[in-house]
């Protein structure tokens, strides 16, 4: 089969991706689906780390609009990502993938604290590492955490998994059938066109450090695997 196209990656999952067809919470069949996709990539010899959001359990922006303190709301959102990370860890280990969760906020009873050298060691030993609690700082999204962790572990590419959207479009394809999909973009184009790829801080960080981003559809049954086999998929931002 040859060498995979990329040796090390960070996969960014939104919390919403884990709720499946539901409106809230964690959908166990979706967890198993994600775990099996990650397992196939590990079997190709790829080092894979994951960053997960918490929007299926908590929306800090909505809490702030309702009158909650922004910093408190953001910390609550970080804890939601820990719940998702533990659920993903369990699903991965049930399909035979050794996994470690590291959190940016120390919660010693349930996960390791984020330590860059320890994360690197886990990856070198073939373990999947899930990074939870964002960057550990309010006002920072999990997109920014994904970009930061990509740099810290020396990953070759940041993968942004979308739920039912197969790339970057000039407008929302679910509302506008005539929307145009981009096969390739530069970082600066994604910023200038204000395309909804990730937040601008994360996108700028990737641009400044020459980190490519691939946006693809999580619901493609072999989508994640295709990326590493060199098949054309999604939108590449580089």
What topology does this entry show?
Elements (H helix, E strand, L loop, with lengths): L7 E6 L14 H16 L3 E6 L7 H6 L4 H25 L4 E5 L8 E2 L2 H9 L3 E5 L9 H11 L4 E6 L5 E2 L11 E2 L1 E2 L1 H6 L7 H9 L4 E5 L5 H6 L6 E3 L1
Parallel strand pairs: 1-2, 1-6, 2-5, 3-4, 3-5, 6-10, 9-11
Antiparallel strand pairs: 7-8, 10-11
Helix pairs in contact: 1-3, 5-7
What key attributes describe this structure?
single chain, 238 residues, alpha/beta, Carbamate kinase, two-stranded antiparallel sheet
Structure description:
The chain has about 240 residues and is of the alpha/beta class. It has one domain (about 10-235): Acetylglutamate kinase-like (Carbamate kinase), CATH 3.40.1160.10. Helices cover about 35% and strands about 20% of the residues. The protein is built from 8 helices and 11 strands. It has helices at about 30-45, 60-65, 70-95, 115-125, 140-150, 185-190, 200-210, 225-230, and strands at about 10-15, 45-50, 100-105, 110-115, 130, 155-160, 170, 180, 185, 215, 235. Strands 4-3-5-2-1-6-10-11-9 form a 9-stranded mixed beta sheet, sandwiched between helices. It has a two-stranded antiparallel ribbon with strand order 7-8. Strand 1 (about 10-15), helix 1 (about 30-45) and strand 2 form a beta-alpha-beta unit. Helix 5 packs parallel to helix 7 (about 200-210). It is globular. The two termini are about 25 Å apart.
């Amino acid at each position: 089969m040859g060498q995979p196209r990329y040796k090390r990656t960070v996969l960014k999952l939104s919390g919403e991706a884990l709720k499946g067809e539901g409106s809230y919470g964690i959908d166990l069949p979706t967890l198993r689906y994600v775990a099996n996709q990650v397992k196939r990539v590990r079997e190709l010899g790829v080092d894979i780390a994951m960053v997960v959001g918490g929007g299926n359990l908590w929306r800090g922006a909505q809490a702030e609009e309702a009158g909650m303190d922004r910093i408190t709301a953001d910390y609550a959102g970080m804890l939601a990502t820990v719940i998702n990370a533990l659920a993903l860890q369990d699903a991965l280990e049930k399909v035979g993938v050794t996994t470690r969760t590291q959190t940016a906020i120390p919660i010693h009873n349930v996960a390791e604290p984020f330590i860059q050298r320890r994360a690197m060691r886990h990856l070198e030993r073939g373990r999947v590492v899930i990074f939870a609690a964002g960057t550990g700082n309010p006002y920072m999204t999990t997109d920014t955490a994904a970009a930061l962790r990509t740099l810290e572990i020396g990953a070759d590419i940041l993968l942004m998994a979308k739920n039912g959207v197969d790339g970057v479009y000039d407008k929302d394809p679910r509302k506008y059938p005539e929307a145009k999909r981009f096969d390739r973009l530069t970082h600066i184009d994604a910023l200038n066109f204000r395309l909804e790829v990730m937040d601008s801080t994360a996108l700028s960080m990737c641009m400044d450090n020459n980190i490519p981003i691939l946006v693809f559809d999580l619901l493609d049954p072999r989508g994640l695997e295709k990326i590493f086999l060199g098949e054309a998929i999604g939108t590449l931002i580089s």
